[in-house]
Amino acid sequence: MKKLSIAILKTLFLICIIGVYLCTQIVVGTIYTVIHVFIILFKGNALATLNTEDLTQELLQAVLGNMNLIFIISGVISIVLLFIIARARYETEYKSIQSNLLTTETTYGLLNEENKSYSSLNRMILDKFRFKRISIKEIPLLVIMGVSMQFITIALLEVLYKTNKLNNAFEKHEELMKGFDGGNIFLVTIAVAVLAPIIEEVICRGFFRVEMRGINILLYVFVSSLAFGLMHMNLLQAIYAFPLGILLAIAYIFIDSIWAPIILHSAVNFTSVILSKLQQYINITETALMVIQAVSFVIVILAFVYYYKRYKENTYTNQALL
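The chain above was modelled as a monomer; its predicted structure follows.
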């Protein structure tokens, strides 16, 4: 019964974490909408002359046209809020660890090697979320993997489009993407390729891994990936974000650093931005695209095989040292 209660509380906590991220975007978007209404009034435009449909359309276009700015503001706020929540959530554990270490040192004259000593609560949080340095030499491979994963995503979208069963979802997705991709390239990059990967990976890979510690690793991969898909609040995005989330979660486990899924996620999103900007200048033939997608598929498979072997070798080495 106690384990069930703990599981329920952790589930509610994770839902709240996602809620903070989504609600922050809604609140910032709402504030922007209200400000835009006042701007209309200040300019002397008579709202009475606009019917409800026209006014709604104008406000919608205003919000979509500034999606990147809205996301950047809400993203920064989200990072601050998530950091505050993490400190509040794990402060008791930190104090307990420090107390145990102090007791062990006082009693036996040495620190228990099974426990870790943290210089601060912030250091413990970074360690729990696995903010470990990765080799600079590893970054190019992760970037190539991310680019390849985006081309695989495009292939999945093409298959879904040909089913003719998600036309409405494709229209909504295209409208949403125009809001992000159609703006200033600098703002788009900050919003989509920097803030979104950091926040979403900290939530779906970081918080979920910490809270689901001790649970079957496959269940963690499935649940965190499902949450990653659903938190996009868009049917089409949820469909392709779920398998993408699985790959990101596996990379997090194999490489044992949250920077790995962050870099992969960033490369995926940035590739999407670049392709949307270049599509009016470059016409890729269907055959060429199929070749690129096939090569991308092979690259991703080989890369994950490489990381899996390295993960198993490191696991074997660590067990041998114990």
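Confidence is low (pLDDT under 50) at residues 105-114.
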